[in-house]
From TrEMBL:
Compartmental location: Cell envelope
Annotated family: Belongs to the polygalacturonase-inhibiting protein family.
Record-linked Pfam families: LRR_1, LRR_8, LRRNT_2
Coiled coil spans: none
Protein's UniProt name: Polygalacturonase inhibitor 1
UniProt cross-references to InterPro entries, sorted A to Z: Leu-rich_rpt, LRR_dom_sf, LRR_N_plant-typ, PGIP
Phylogenetic placement of the source organism: Eukaryota, Viridiplantae, Streptophyta, Embryophyta, Tracheophyta
Principal location: other
Signal peptide: 1-24
Source species of the chain: Rhynchospora pubera
Domain Leucine-rich repeat-containing N-terminal plant-type: 29-66
Keywords annotated in UniProt: Leucine-rich repeat, Repeat, Signal
Length: 309
């Protein structure tokens, strides 16, 4: 499953981001000063040994420059540090992408200075110890992808995220988010992804996520209730729906939920099954075919038997 998510992300990034490797340009002096402040706020980790004063910061590791010599991407992975998120990120006004990934010693909350990042399109903050709520000021950015999986965030999924008109990739999996899922979190015309697995979300899934132009929905391992049958149907173009490990109830008579005649259905309803190995297998054609061959009422029984209440 992790591989699948990464591939989705990769396609998404290739699709969205236009990173230029213009290392011959000299970098903006203010950006260089800011990066040196960030390095200091991170405790001068050895991985950033190329970040030296009076050198061209477009040639430094872990950053990209735009074709005007402005820093537009900072990516930091697997650092052995123990500190908060550097507030100085807010002083890189042309920043479009921030990646802070697999840094377990990174703690504290998202700093208020991030509200200054009006051009920020991609924020990946994953596998850290960052806590707190998702701040409302993130809605002042230009985010199209927000990936906060495997951190220690809590609180509600804020309504303010719905104000991001380009948000089309949202991954909040593996935190302690609670409350209901707001409607209207995703925008854009194609390639929309919603991953909210492994939280404490409750209530019913808003009906607007069944409108057919979402690629992936993973809401597994929450406390969701209600009948999500509206997410299924022959015309829905989703590639994956995983609703396992919730307290949902299904209308098995609804077209597409468990219809044995839907052999041409491009997606599979089998990711409903609670065991993760079934979820993984559900994309396999053989498994699909096998289940489709089971008679309708048997399939119902099969699904209900596997259910975790
Ligand atoms: C991380 O850094 C601490 C002290 O700075 C050190 O004791 C520890 O061995 C380091 N761990 C790794 C995996 O490098
Ligand atoms: C926001 O991002 C879009 C592309 O995704 C871009 O066209 C637009 O200019 C950006 N807005 C700002 C304020 O940078």
């Amino acid at each position: 499953m992790q591989v699948k998510i990464s591939i989705s992300l990769l396609f998404f990034l290739l699709f969205l981001s236009d990173l230029s490797l213009s290392s011959s340009l000299d970098c903006n002096a203010a950006d260089r000063t800011t990066l040196l402040n960030i390095k200091s706020e991170l405790g001068n980790p050895p991985e950033l040994s190329t970040w030296l004063p009076a050198t061209n910061c477009c040639t430094w590791s872990n950053v990209y420059c735009s074709d005007t010599g402005r820093i537009n991407n900072v990516y930091l992975f697997s650092l052995n540090i123990s500190t908060t998120i550097p507030p100085s990120f807010g002083d890189l006004p042309k920043l479009e992408t921030i990646q802070l990934q697999t840094i377990p010693g990174l703690y504290g909350t998202i700093p208020p200075s991030f509200s200054k990042l009006r051009k920020l399109e991609i924020l990946f903050l994953t596998d850290t110890s960052v806590t707190g709520a998702i701040p409302d000021f993130l809605s002042r950015t230009n985010l199209s992808a927000l990936d906060l999986h495997n951190n220690k965030f809590s609180g509600p999924t804020p309504m303010s995220l719905t104000k991001l008109p380009r948000l089309q990739f949202l991954d909040l999996s593996g935190n302690s988010f609670s409350g209901t899922i707001p409607p209207g979190l995703l925008h854009g015309t194609d390639r929309r992804y919603l991953y909210l697995a492994r939280n404490k979300l409750s209530g019913e899934i808003p009906e607007d996520y069944g409108n057919g132009d979402i690629d992936t929905i993973d809401l597994s391992h929450n406390r969701l209730t209600g009948d999500p049958s509206f997410l299924f149907g022959l015309t829905k173009p989703m590639t994956k729906i995983d609703l396992s490990w919730n307290q949902l109830e299904f209308d098995m008579t609804r077209p597409g939920v468990a219809d044995p005649n839907s052999g041409s259905n491009p997606w599979t309803p089998l990711t409903l099954l609670p065991q993760s190995e079934f979820v993984k297998e559900a994309g396999g054609k053989n498994f699909c075919a096998a289940i489709h061959a089971i008679r309708y009422h048997q399939l119902s029984l099969f699904l209900l038997k596997q259910w975790h209440f």
